[in-house]
Amino acid sequence: MNLPKVSRKEAGTLLGVSQRQIQRYLRFGSEFLGIFNTFFDPATNELNGFPLTQKEVTELTKIQELIRKYKNTKNKHEQIKTEFNHDSDRCSSSGFNP
After folding, report:
1. Sequence ranges of the domains in the chain
2. How far apart are the C-alpha atoms of 60 and 51, rounded to whole Å?
């Protein structure tokens, strides 16, 4: 089943942030989630204009929550990666593969 896709502007509205912030979340998320690699041109590593699926918006929401959680924390980048990877490991061990 194909879910409707949303633009970055629409995703920003859903998350309560700007389109530019969605782009930042995509860049950050691409460092440890392969689903975001499709949003980058392989030749230039620049963002392309592909729309987002609901699953990708859900992952961006998780990234947003973790960024806000660790906002004032030293080494927040590494802590967010660790927590996200921990959640992925837990999902993988339960048979769910996001």
Report:
1. 8-93
2. 13
Rounded to an integer, what distance in angstroms lies between the CA atom of residue 59 and that of residue 57?
5
> pTM for the full model?
0.79
* Cβ contact 51:38 at 8 Å: no
- pLDDT of residue 13 exceeding 80, the answer is yes
Average pLDDT taken over every residue of the chain: 83
Tell me phi and psi for residue 52, to 5 degrees: -100, 145
What number of residues does the chain have? 98
Work out whether the CA dihedral 86, 39, 4, 12 comes out positive or negative: positive
Q: Is the distance from CB of 11 to CB of 52 less than 8 angstroms?
A: yes
3-state secondary structure the chain: CCCCCECHHHHHHHHCCCHHHHHHHHHHHHCCCHHHHHHECCCCCCECCCCECHHHHHHHHHHHHHHHHCCCCCCHHHHHHHHHHHHHHHHHHCCCCC
